[in-house]
Every structure is written in C-alpha cells, then in structure tokens.
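Whiteboard transcription, Tuesday session. T.W. wrote the structure tokens on the left side:
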C-alpha cells in the first residue's frame, strides 16, 4: 500500500505555486519582462494572477525598479511612441494609459514631451483619405470625426485641415 505524500507547511497558490516564494516570483517576473516592457501595475496583476502574495510582489517590484528592470517612465515613452506611430492621438493614448493605472501627472508630462502629434495626425489623415485636402463641408466633417475618434484634439484637427476657426466655417447664418 502506498504511503500518502507529506504536505508541506507552506500553502500553495494557483497552479501549485508557493505564494510566499520570492525567488519563484522573481523568476516569473523576469520571464514576463523578457517578452516586452510592462508597467508596474500590469506586472503586479500578472503575478497576482499566477498566485503570488501581494506583499512579496510589492517588495519584488521595488527591487526591480531599483535594478532598472522595471521602469514606468520608459514604459510610458515606448507606449506613447508606439501608439502615436499607429495614428492614435494624445487623448486616446492618455485614456489608454489611465486605464492601465499609471499616474496622471507622469502621463501628461510624457504626452506633452512627444513632439510629433501633428505629423502623426497628418499621416493618419493621408492614409485614410489621401493627400488632397477636403473640398467641402461634408468631407471636412467626416475627416474631423475620424481624427477625433483617433484621439486628436480639436485644435490639432483644425490645424491639420487648414481651418482657422470652427469646423463649420463655410456655413453662413443669414437671418
């Protein structure tokens, strides 16, 4: 007859992971970070999902920050550059970053430091609508709605479409 296995005194988390094992948590974090850059909030949620204890994760994140293996500033810069190159504007990129739980002042500083918003806006407009400027009110409105959806501000859209005032400047009110 078989003898039953001895159970360790440590509690086991999901998938047989010891939630208090700092070494295993560090190995998991390095494995996660080896694929791409993550924010500290994303890394925390991934490690919690793997069954590690929150206090172990908090200590680990602080050590990874000290070793510069985890850097929210670098993550912000890479995120902004990548999404801007895909034609997304500062409003949309900022909303995505806030959704990830990054601090607002750092987001605003990174968005303000990115200098190519107008270039990216023009590139997104030309990719969708071609190089010729809009010729009538309906075309301007359609392009403006598209660019607003992509996350660009009204001022940026007016500058890109060559409008000095409001988007419906060619309408006249004759009363």
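and on the right, the sequence the group agreed on:
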């Amino acid at each position: 007859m078989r003898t039953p296995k001895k159970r360790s005194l440590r509690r086991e988390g999901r998938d047989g992971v010891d939630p208090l094992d700092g070494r295993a948590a560090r190995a998991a974090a390095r494995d996660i970070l080896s694929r791409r850059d993550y924010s500290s909030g994303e890394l925390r949620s991934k490690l919690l999902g793997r069954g590690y204890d929150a206090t172990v994760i908090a200590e680990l994140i602080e050590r990874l920050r000290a070793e510069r293996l985890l850097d929210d500033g670098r993550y912000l810069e890479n995120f902004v550059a990548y999404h801007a190159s895909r034609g997304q504007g500062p409003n949309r990129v900022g909303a995505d970053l806030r959704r990830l739980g990054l601090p607002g002042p750092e987001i605003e500083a990174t968005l303000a430091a990115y200098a190519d918003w107008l270039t990216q806006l023009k590139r997104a407009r030309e990719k969708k609508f071609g190089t010729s400027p809009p010729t009538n009110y309906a075309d301007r409105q359609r392009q403006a709605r598209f660019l607003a959806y992509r996350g660009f501000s009204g001022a940026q859209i007016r500058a890109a479409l060559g409008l000095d005032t409001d988007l419906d400047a060619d309408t006249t009110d004759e009363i």
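Someone added at the bottom: The chain has a mean pLDDT of 85.
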